[in-house]
Amino acid sequence: MTAVAKFSSDYGNNDPVMRKYFELGEEKARGLGNRGPIKFESDGTLSKDILKTYSEIGFYVFENILSQEELQDLEAGVSSILDRLPTSKNANLNRLGEPAIGLNCKAPTLFWSKPLADPFGGTNLANGRHPVKMNEPLPEGNVPDEVVYLILGTLQFSEELLRTYAHPELLKVAEAINGEDFVPFTEALFIKEPGVGASVAWHRDGTTHWDSPDFDEGTHGFNFMAQLYGCTAANGVWVVPGTHKERHVDISNMVKRAGSERIEEAVPMICNPGDVVISNRQAVHGSFANTSSDWRVTINQGFHRRRSVLGVKGGGLHGEPAVYDAERIIERSKIIKLAIEARKQRFPEEEAFEYKPLSSSAEDFSWNGATKNNIHDYNLLDLSI
Ligand SMILES: O=C(O)CCC(=O)C(=O)O
């Protein structure tokens, strides 16, 4: 059973109500029935029960997906990324005195926040999709002025993350949900350091299709959220179940009704290390400043249906606005093949996933020093809808 949150700092006057909210949220989350291993039917399709529950609630916790071996690799990969970040927002060097990662990328990579702050809430950033600012507790102790809480384009920074991107069971789920011709969206790392980690204000992710005639609950895709250290009500993502089916929701009104940012209908993702959540991007979700003493590191891997992105003008949140044609889509999808090849080298006994859109391609997708260099700035081609 996942440990209940322990706290290193607090929410000031709000502390007792926040703790109560976390307690009740965890109880609700455990009663939802949306967790268990990945299961397939005898014909190889994803379990009907999982599909039904995911469709009803908008997220599902796949338990025990990443092995201890893979988690150890990922911990080394994430720790190396943290070592290579700039020592401060305006620094060029990392804590090892070397040129820091991210600075020579054209695509957006590093997102900074003041400790325990909410950089997006109540601003016009990201199309103003985070309408309400979360409570910003005061950090305790000697904390940096700003910390990186979100990294995009992560696969170029870590071979360990790249290999997990090709986890065969996860890719089978992506295929089951989004179809054989599923395509990438973006990859991210959310870092919620104890006593420092920023809030992500309530929002939903989609930008392009809310009024499309063929809109449905899967239109804006999903994220896998793999948990390196697990997550609790205090440091994890919260979701408002069922909102992924709605074309329009009023987040400001939800907060108004609750009388605070503690939206009543929301439930937290509660996970152990190695669990992977599938989370519908259309669901209202967010996370609170991490005043707990537990780290949360989430490895996000997003996927879309091809038909949701083909011929669509991207929202411009993860790159320059552009119409996504077939060529761009296939170019961005090549990272799936490279990741599969990289994973084969590390886990040769495992049955590799076959990515159908590229299975007859004559291109060489071997993973080696040259291909590694080629994925610099690969996320300039993100398919952001
Ligand atoms: O991990 C978090 O705290 C926020 C995640 C999120 O907003 C997202 O993946 O869209």
Notable features of this structure?
alpha+beta; four-stranded antiparallel beta sheet; binds 2-oxoglutaric acid; 385 residues
Description of the structure:
This protein is α+β, with helices and mostly antiparallel strands and 385 residues long. It has one domain: q2cbj1_9rhob like domain (Jelly Rolls). Helices cover 27% and strands 15% of the residues. It has helices at residues 15-31, 48-57, 68-83, 125-128, 159-165, 168-178, 251-258, 306-309, 326-346, 369-374; strands spanning 35-36, 59-62, 110-113, 147-152, 183-192, 200-203, 222-227, 237-239, 267-268, 276-280, 285-287, 296-304. The protein has an eight-stranded mixed sheet. It has a four-stranded antiparallel sheet with strand order 6-11-8-9. The longest helix has 21 residues, at 326-346. The two termini are 36 Å apart. The relative contact order is 0.18. The model has no long low-confidence stretch (mean pLDDT 94).
Would you identify the CATH H-level superfamily? Answer: q2cbj1_9rhob like domain
In CATH, the topology is named Jelly Rolls
- How would a textbook summarize the main sheet? 8 strands, mixed
Bound molecules: 2-oxoglutaric acid
Q: Tally the structural domains.
A: 1
Estimate percent helicity.
25-40%
Shape designation: globular
- Mean pLDDT comes to 94
The count of strands amounts to 12
Radius of gyration: 20 Å
Uncertain runs are none
User: Structural class, judged by helices and strands?
Assistant: alpha+beta
